[in-house]
Design goal:
mainly alpha, 15 helices, 66% helix, VanZ like family protein, VanZ-like
Length: 450
Amino acid sequence: MSPGPGHPSYPVPRPRPLPVRRRGPHPLTVLAALCGLFIVYGTTIPFEPVAEPIPLAEGWRRAVDAAPRRSSRTDRAANVLLFMPLGAMIAARLGRAGAGPIGSVLAASAVGAALSAGVETLQINLQMRVTSVSDLMNNTIGSAIGGGLGWLAGRWAWPWFWPALKRGAATHPLASLAIVATVGWGVIELAPFVPSADVGDLKSAVKSARPIPFGPSVDGRRPAPDPWAWAVEALSWSLLGGLVALAVRERGGRGVELVAETIVLTAGFRAAVELVQLGFPGHVTDATSVVLTSAGATASALAVAIRPRLPARSWIGPGLAVWAAAVLIDGASPFDAFGRPRSLDPRMAFPFYSYFWSPPTSALATAAEKVASMVPLGFLLAARSRRWTPAASALSGWAAGASIEAIQLFNASRTPDMTDAFLAALGAWLGGRALRSWESAGASPSSPTT
C-alpha cells in the first residue's frame, strides 16, 4: 500500500515557478529612439552620395573654416526645434528614474551632440547637404533646452498633471476631454512654434492683421476669398464646439444657456489664440477665424440643445461625418481643377522627400497640421468600441490619408504625397492611444459615449 497524503514519506509536489513577466522598454526610451531615427532620416534625405568622396577630415576642415558665416534665423530655429524632442524624451526618462536636473540635461546634450556630429559627418559625402559647425551647436542647444523642459515635465509637471487628469476623467470626463482637445488645437495653431520678441516683427504682424471679419488687413491688403478654407475651419470648430457643448451639458447647461456658454468659450478661446499669433512670425491674426469658429460651434451647440437627452455615444457617427467632410474638402479642394488622372511622382512615395525642399519651419507646421487633422478619426473610432486598438486606428488613418492622395491624382492643382498618408497614420494612432490613456486615467470606458 502506497502512503497517502499526510504520511511522512508521501512526496510533496514542488510548486510550479511563476512565469517571469518580461517588460519591454520604457515608452520614453522608445520615443527617444524614434526621434533619433527620424533625425537621421530627415537630415540625410534624399540619400544621394557625391561623385567623388571627400575625406572626412577635409570635410570637417571646410566646415570649421565656414563657421564664422552666420546662418539664417530660420535655419537656427529649425535646428533647435529638431533636437528638442530627443532631449526632452531622454531627460524625462532619466528624471522619472530619479536623476537630477543637471545630470539629465547634460546627458541629453551629450546624446544630441553625438548624434548631430554623426549626422554632420554623413553629410560630408551627400549631395545637397552641407556640414555645418553652426548646425552642430544649434542641435546641441536644442537637446539641452528639450532636456530641461523634459526633466521639468517628468519630475514636476507630470506628477501634478496625471492625478489632476484622473480626477477630471472620473468626475467630469467630457469637460476634461474638451479642455485637452481645445488646448491641443491651440498649440498646433502656433506651429512651427518660433516666437519672436523683435519689435519689427510685431509691427509687421499688426500691419498684416485683419481686425474686421472678411475685410482687409490693417495695411489695406485684401486677400482673395477662400470659401473652401472657410468651410474647413467652420467644420473643424463644429467638431470641437460639439465636444464643448457636451461638456457644458455634462455640467448641467440646457437650452439657451448651453448654446450661449458654448459660443462664449469657443469664440473667446479662438480670439485669444489669434492675439497670441501676433508674436509668432508667419501667422496672420484674422477676425474671420473667430466668426467661423462661432458659426461652427453654434451649429453643434444647437444640435446638442435640441436633443438634450441623446447619449453622447450617439454623436460619434455625426462627429465622424463632420470630420470626413472637413478632411475631404481640405485635401481635395479646389474642386474645379479636377480632370484626367495623373501618375504619381515616384519621389513622392518616399516619406518626407517633399519636405526636404520646403523651408524647415514651414515643413514643421505642415506636418503638425496633417497629424492633428487625423487625431479625431483615431479617437472617435476607438470610442465606438473597446476592441478597437490604436494600431487599428493607425491603419484606418493610413487608409484615409492614402485615399485623399489618390483623389489628388485627379486634381491638377494638388501634388499627391504619400508622406501625408504616414502622417495621417501617426495622427490616428495618437487619437486612439489618447482615448485609451484617458480611460486608464480613471474614466469609465463608456464615459466618452454616455
